[in-house]
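Entry 14. Ran structure prediction on the chain below.
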Amino acid sequence: MSGQTLTDRIAAAQYSLTGSEVSRAVCKATTHEQTAPKKKHMEYLIQASQETTVNVPQMVDTLMERVGNASWVVVFKALITTHHLMVHGNEKFIQLLASRNTLFNLANFLDKTGSHGYDMSTFIRRYSRYLNEKSFAYRQMSFDFVRVKKGAEGAMRTMSVEKLLKGMPTLQSQIDALLDFEVHQQELNNGVINACFLLLFKDLIKLYACYNDGIINLLEKFFQMKRSQCKDGLEIYKRFLTRMTRVSEFFKIAEQVGIDKNDIPELTQAPESLLESLETHLNTLEGKKP
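Output, structure tokens:
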């Protein structure tokens, strides 16, 4: 389906009559066209989220209305627009989403109009789960893992043991929800899902950087931790090792669909001897003989 439908035009016109330019821009970003939301509408909404005079709750409500649409195209584009604003909009946007008890209730979403509708509905259900996790993680941590400072002075490297042991499972859950999108190269066959995949790829790079920072911090503190903390820390480290394979697979798909190799981080495998020394240390604390 190309071009805006009559329904799209009526929806945008309704908001023009009520004087809500923001809601009109949301409708324009989430038309029935099987293309990514237009850049000009995204940029307008990002800018609007920064303005003190703009009603951000109304922006969120209009996006939620669009998510309630029957068409997979409109729903997918509403989720993409929400994701884009979570990453690039004013922080009050993600704060508002995180303050809601339920965000997207799309576990049973199904567009039965043709085989494409069935296929894309699967990805909508998975994508909405990821955005729910992203919002929940913000509520738990009071910051967004994607937007937070990385590196030696970053949040995950400077975090206390207590906060780290609470924060790492939250980060792991968000990464798991992203990897559960489980798309293959041949399924990235339209502008809508491609726009979603690119946002997920960019999130994963930043989440992986946070994950790496957290693991470095964990390993630096491990031998000074209490026994119970070491036990939790060891489980976190083991889960990190198993996730590396899945992260690597996601990056391979990114490469297959033409994302520049230079934009894809190289994953270095930790030596097995490191895991052994952590286990030995915990066994010593628990009084077990080697």
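The two ends are 66 Å apart (CA to CA). Will compare against last week's run tomorrow.
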